[in-house]
Specification:
2 helices
């Protein structure tokens, strides 16, 4: 078992060591864990912002749109 802490609410949970999420957290320390309740809450708020028109997706520019002087 792998003990993990949510980055938002700091709730400590246990993950099965064989899951892909546990392997990702163990092998790449830059990745962070977010509990299901926080993930659901953020997803719900994001959907509300998308529906309200306050959400702007930043997409990478294509090669043609890039400024040649940068």
């Amino acid at each position: 078992m792998l003990r993990v802490k949510c980055v938002l609410c700091e709730k400590i949970e246990s993950l099965n060591s064989d899951t892909p999420e546990a392997k990702k957290l163990r092998n790449r320390p830059i990745h962070t864990y977010m509990c299901d309740s926080c993930r659901e809450r953020i997803g719900k708020k994001t959907e509300e912002r998308k529906a309200g028109g306050q959400f702007h997706m930043r997409r990478p520019h294509s090669e043609e749109e890039k400024d040649p002087y940068i």
